User: Fold Apea-like HEPN domain-containing protein from Streptomyces mirabilis.
Amino acid sequence: MSLVRAEADLIRLCQRAGLSDGQRALLEAVLAASDPEAVLTQHVTSAPTAVATLARAHSALESRARPGRSKPQPYPEQALDLVIDARETLEAFASHFPPGRVDGAVNALTVIERGGPAGLKSATDPAARAAILAGRAAEVQTAVTDGFAAAWCGTAAAGTREQLALEMAALCVMEGRQHHLLSDDVRTVLSRGSLDVGRLLKVLLPAVRDFRVAVVVEGTSRLESLARLMDSAAAVRNSPGEPAVGWGHATADLKALAELADAASAARRAWSGDQAGGHVLLTFTVRARDLGGAALLGRRRASEMLDQYVAGQRVAEIRLRPETLAHDPDSGRVLRAAVPVLGSGPVRPLTIGWPPALRESLRTAHIARVTEAPTTAAGLCWAALEALDVKSGKKGNTGELARALSLQAVRQQVIDLHQRTRTAVAAEVSAARTAHQAAQRAADRLEAAAKAAEGARAALLGEKATTARDIALGQRAALERASEAEAYRAVVDAWTGVGDDGLLRDPDRWLDAFAPPADADPALRAAADALVALTDRLGGETAARLRTWRALLADPCSLATWLKGTAGRFETSLDWLYAIRNTALHDGRFASATDLLDVHAGRALVDLTLEFLGNWYQHAPTPTLEQPERTAVAVIAHLAVRQQKVVEELEGGTRAGWNVSRLTSPTSTGWDRA
Assistant:
């Protein structure tokens, strides 16, 4: 399904369910912030949330509480920084939650903070404090759902709606909700008509329940003593020849998975005669919130169980095949999953001009991308950055990398908003046209039936036909209004120079249309007026983003604050990645409440870093003896200084000269637009 068609379908479903524009924007914000395909600065991982920061503080204390460690991770100073960050986040967002609901968590964090690093050195103190925070975390999650319910039913301020949408998105990701299934579930419940907040919360965060999972273990014909290694409640089945219990109508899918494994084993033996053909179909029960989460959790449980067998085999390799089957006994639904999800179509390198010194980072980033275990992958993301000579700590340069990333994030936001706006306009038109056509057909059918009927029935059908025709006229007016947005978009396109392919080639001209100078030429003034009118004709989350960026661009000081805030959030994320690397790769702790958030953030931060470095080396002049090529860490330091200069100019109250198109380019200063 195309992006336009998918969004048009969601718009129609929101209308059918009678959602207000505020409710639609709130729901779209949750879906957008939890979408793994969203740009980093739109995904919830780039935003501070109470549920995530508190969970990370708890995870740090829990890690330090592990007994028998000579140097428990993270170090006391790092753990205390996470506690302080959680306390500051909760205090900053307390006004968005029901009164007093996060006070207990704030007080608990304050007590830990007052104890300083000395209070976190022994294993017993962190253990006790982690137990307290676990209870407070549950209270904060309840406050989030209650606050979200209040925002859905009332008229919360825009800032409160945005934060609660982020909090709910963070919960969805942390709880393992798979975005495509979440989106499908939302659309299903909207299609049933009026939607109350109770039903919506059950869709966003379904109750944890039992799911059946099946995986294929290659490299063995039988797993001995399996029931002693997995929870007895998991009802383990170790094929072959054992009856499948608890699979119901999904037994055929289970058989298909077994046949796929047989065929793959035979093909591998035919290709290479030295390959053994042993494999086991392993089925068991996990508790999760949806099929996708059950499949991922099942693979993790099976992989952890295989650790025991791998340790007992000196030569043979035992591994999971990529295919997984998950079954919901309650609904009968089945999910056939495979990891990783492969792409399609042609691919091209980011740049062919990478210096040899950066190859180690590229290699590590690639390994982090294909590593399935989330905490391990997040730790490898730090290793990829460390290969660029990025360091954490008081003498580190994560602050410099964060400032450089904030410049690239502006470009990312600007271009993404342009694409989202074009998609939203096309979707509004498509949704309005479909609704109008459906209303027309309904009115035509009723009018035809009224003409064919007689007496009282004809009169009744005539009344219904009149009502239906009024509805059709209303839908026609809605279509005309949506078509006006399309016409306004064409005016904006004429100014930005967007062609038939819809690509934005000059981001600065797009930004000009948000806040033109007083002496703007007629074409720019027309584009600015068209963008205002277009925004008024859009609804949902895209319209809210357009208004946010108009306010930012109209006030350069606010834009400077956004840049500094974004850099600060990136620095916090980078320091947390470093802590993950230590706890996972040094201390052997491979699970946390936020690991699904962490792996997304790690990969996205590495991607954004390589994006601006790739752009730099692609456009940098050919190195010479007099002017050698900058190292990656030197490029990062240079762009960090550039960010500070850009912030200073913006705080001076002007955007004149700001060159977003070449903000991270070696051929620009970032403030040299003619």
Q: What stands out?
A: The CA atoms of residues 117 and 251 lie 55 Å apart. The chain has a mean pLDDT of 89. The first strand starts at residue 209 and ends at 218. The chain is about 65% helix and 5% strand.
